[in-house]
Amino acid sequence: GQQVMQIPQYQHVQEGEDFTTYCNSSTTLSNIQWYKQRPGGHPVFLIQLVKSGEVKKQKRLTFQFGEAKKNSSLHITATQTTDVGTYFCAGPSPGSQGNLIFGKGTKLSVKP
Amino acid sequence: DAGVIQSPRHEVTEMGQEVTLRCKPISGHNSLFWYRQTMMRGLELLIYFNNNVPIDDSGMPEDRFSAKMPNASFSTLKIQPSEPRDSAVYFCASPGPITDTQYFGPGTRLTVL
User: Fold this and answer.
1) Does residue B99 have a pLDDT over 90?
2) What is the pLDDT of residues A33-64, one digit of tens each?
3) What is the C-alpha to C-alpha distance for residues A4 and B43, in angstroms, rounded to an integer?
4) How far apart are CA B25 and CA B103, in angstroms?
């Protein structure tokens, strides 16, 4: 079945350093989404990418969707302690209405 | 809109007891998703409903787990009997305003002793 893989599983950075997490799907995706879960919180939708090669920015966060629509990345420039949390990518499950396949997530910790 | 509401937020119970988790989805949507999150297995889809009908329950671990959605504004996830390995955070989610996205509830942290 469809799989969505994320690397790395954990990332520890010094505040001010950059951070990147990568997501790969075993199948072509109609769209890819990113969610952030703060410690003790719940996943919160960040963004959706739909077009091949699409790049979107939210302040210090840059999201990319690969040309083949099978991979994506999230890059954070100059991390801050508020960026701490787990970042998940997710893609629609084929043929399922609204069902998503989530990656395992990348847990980011930021040392002040 | 209050978003997705889950209750209780925390539940501690003893092995063998019945546990019922509740979810009030965002009004106006006809789908609902139940997830379980643990350190070992990450975020797992247990079951999802469309038009109050269970569409895919292949993620439900065993017969001890059951879920219902009697109407568009309420769903329950029941574990009977509960076991320590059921300890996890259980989320329900509603469809978001953008196609294919989801709004998660705050979750229920279940501890089975």
Assistant:
1) no
2) 999 999 999 999 999 999 999 999 999 999 99
3) 12
4) 9
Contact (CB<8Å) A98/B56: no
Residues of B whose CB is below 8 A from A96: 48, 55-56
Angle at CA of residue A96, ends A90 and A101, nearest 5°? 20
Percent of chain A with pLDDT over 70: 99
pLDDT of res. B58 = 87
Minimal Cα distance from A106: which residue of B? B42
| Cβ separation A43–B104 shorter than 8 A | yes
In this structure, what token pair is assigned to residue A75? 């890059």
Sign of CA dihedral A37, A69, B45, A7: negative
Q: How large is the average pLDDT for residues A88-103?
A: 87
CB proximity under 8 Å: A 16-35 to B: 30-31, 33
Confidence of residue B97 (pLDDT cuts 50, 70, 90): confident
As a whole number of angstroms, the distance between CA B29 and CA A73 comes to 30
How many contacts (CB atoms, under 8 Å) link A and B?
A: 54
In B, which residues are within 8 Å of A105 by CB distance? 42-43
State yes or no: pLDDT of A96 exceeds 80: no
Tell me the residue type at B50.
Answer: N
Token pair recorded at residue A79: 């991390």
Cα-to-chain-centroid distance, residue B35: 5
